[in-house]
Amino acid sequence: MFRSLFLMLVLLAGLLAGPYLSGRQGYVRIETANNIYEMSITTLVILFVVALAVIYAIEWIISRFLRLSNNTYSWFSRRKRTKAQKQTLKGLMKMNEGDYLKAEKLIGKNAKHSDEPILNLIKAAEAAQQRGDEFSANRYLIEATELAGSDNLLVEIARTRILLQQHKLPAARSSIDSLLEMTDRNKEVLKLAVEIYRQSKAYQALDNILESVQRSGLYSADEFKALQTETENGLLDEKMNEEGVDGLLAWWGEQPRRRRNELDLKVALIERLIDCNDHESAYEFTLDVLKKWGDNTPLSNALCTQITRLQPTDNSKLVKIIEKRTKNADEKQQCAINRALGYLYVRNNEFEKAAEAFKKVTACPAQLESNDRMMAAYVFEQAGDKVAAEQIRQESLRNAMSLKENV
Question: FRET pair for 317, CA 20 to 30 Å: which of 43, 169, 207, 371?
Answer without folding.
Answer: 371
